[in-house]
Structures are given as structure tokens and as C-alpha cells.
Amino acid sequence: MKLEDLATAAAREAGQLLAKMQDSINPREKAPKDLVTEADVASQKRILEIISENRPDDFFLGEEDLTSEVDLPGLDQTVDSTVDLADLEYCWVIDPLDGTANYVHKLQTYSVSIALLNYGEPIVAAVYDPVLNDCYSATRGEGARVNGLPMQHSGVDELQRSLIAASFSAGVERGSPEVDRWVEMLYECQALRRLGSAALNLCYVAQGGLDGYWATSVKIWDIAAGVLIVREAGGTITSIDGGPLKIDEAKFIAAATEKLHKQMFDVLNRV
Ligand code: IPD
Ligand code: CA
Ligand code: CA
């Protein structure tokens, strides 16, 4: 099976499981304001089963800790965030439910995000939105698609005409640079959003629903798939300081065009 097809099949199946489970999820806080549910765990288990059946030698890095599970296929190939992904030939990076806070509150903006990394660089990606039944996917060098059809970013290159999104960490503090960047951008763009799924934000930049998106506190599993989808759709994405993006640091600016990216960079680096 083509790797992109495997990634999309796993994302779709896990996403449909999330949609089915939404009324029986038992939310709890794993850290203050940082929610997890039984559905996050069930989704990650299903993804592991599907992918490891096809790719038994690949590694897995998922957001949720499944080490207490027994007899779970793929568990022996699971690594944690301390591992250097650049040392692994193939590692699947999984966010089984991106947008858990939305999901718990039944705000229907959430997704499943799956990326395959080759020595630390994303080569295959799938992000699935089970509510709209939209599956975004990409393979390095082969473009990005939504539901199998090519995608196009907005082409917008003026910040004053741009719809921009940002992500905050779960426990953002008063007076933090995250808040200051938000305020600066609010003055400069046409409209600013915090939608609650980092993976979907990146897909929206690739598809044209958003013109730009930045984040400084997300994790590798939030963005590994979306970064490849933005790149393959022809968008621009760099680290927040303008250098090449380090995917495991996950502080970045993504934009439809280079010109817009430069304007976002100037505003965000006032802080
Ligand atoms: C969160 C979402 C959100 C971002 C948070 C992430 P989760 O992921 O991507 O947009 O602001 O930083 O933690 O916890 O719902 O998987
Ligand atoms: Ca996430
Ligand atoms: Ca998650």
C-alpha cells in the first residue's frame, strides 16, 4: 500500500472512532487546562494497530502514553520525546486527537494528525477532520491534496487583507510573549483567530481558508503532518526567527506567500 494511503486510511478510521465516541469520553486534566479523554487513547491505539500491521519495523511517537497497555501491536516500537528522531529511519508521529478542548465542549473543530518522518523529516502526512469528512494529505515531492484533489493556498500577500490564526499553550500566562504577539498581530491583520486545532490550522493555510498561522508552544505531533502539507501546497514555513524550521522545536510562522510571511515575521518579532 502507498504510504500516503496508509496514513489517510488510519487517520480516517481513527477520526470516525472519535466522532462515534463523543458522547462517552470521560475527560480529565493531565495538566491544568490540558484535557485528555478516553477517545484520545482509543484513537491512538487504533492508529498503532493499523500502521504496525503494515509497517512492523517502523517506530511510533504518539502524544498519549500507552505503556500501560498490554498486547498492543506496535507498542514495542514506540519511542518517547527524548529520542533523537534524526536517528530513526522511519518514525510515525501521531496526534490521535488534535483539538481535545473543542472535542470535549462539542465545538466541532478537531482532527487526527499522522506524519511519517524519515530521519526526522516529514515525508508523508495525513490530517483528517471527521466532522466535515475532509482528509488532507501529502507526500514529499508529490504535492498536497484534500480528499484526493490538489489544493491551492490563497495567494494573499498583504497582512492587512489576511485572515491569520495562532495557537496558545494550554496554560498561557498573563503578560507572556504569546499574549503580546497576539495583541501586535491583532492591530495589523484583517482578522485573527484561535481555532483550537494546530493541525487543521496548517491545513487551512495550505487550502486557502487561512492566509497565515503561527505558534510558539505546540508540540511535534501537533504540526508534523501539517508542516509537510503546507510545504507541498507551496506555502512558506520557517522557524519563528526566520531560519529553517526545526520540527521538534515547533516555533514557526506559516504563510500562503513569502511576502506575507515577511510581514508576519516583522510584526511577531517586535515582541
Ligand atoms: C492543542 C491544539 C491547540 C494548541 C495547543 C495544542 P491538543 O492540541 O493543537 O490548537 O493551541 O497548544 O496542545 O492538546 O488538543 O492535542
Ligand atoms: Ca495536539
Ligand atoms: Ca492531542
Nutshell version of this structure?
This protein has helices spanning 3-21, 38-54, 100-105, 177-188, 198-207, 220-232, 258-268; strands spanning 28-31, 34-36, 59-62, 91-98, 111-118, 121-129, 134-139, 144-146, 149-150, 163-167, 191-193, 212-215, 236-239, 252-255. With 271 residues, it is α+β, with helices and mostly antiparallel strands. The longest helix is centred in the first third of the chain and has 19 residues, at 3-21.
Give a description of the structure.
With 271 residues, the protein is an alpha+beta fold. The chain has two domains: 3-150, Fructose-1,6-Bisphosphatase, subunit A, domain 1 (Fructose-1,6-Bisphosphatase, Chain A, domain 1); 159-268, D-Maltodextrin-Binding Protein, domain 2, CATH 3.40.190. The chain is 32% helix and 25% strand. It contains seven helices and 14 strands. It has helices spanning 3-21, 38-54, 100-105, 177-188, 198-207, 220-232, 258-268, and strands spanning 28-31, 34-36, 59-62, 91-98, 111-118, 121-129, 134-139, 144-146, 149-150, 163-167, 191-193, 212-215, 236-239, 252-255. Helix 1 (3-21) packs antiparallel against helix 2 and helix 5 runs parallel beside helix 6. The mean pLDDT is 96. The structure holds D-MYO-inositol-1-phosphate (IPD) and calcium ion (CA) (2 copies). D-MYO-inositol-1-phosphate binds at residues 95, 97-101, 167-170, 196-198, 217-218, 222.
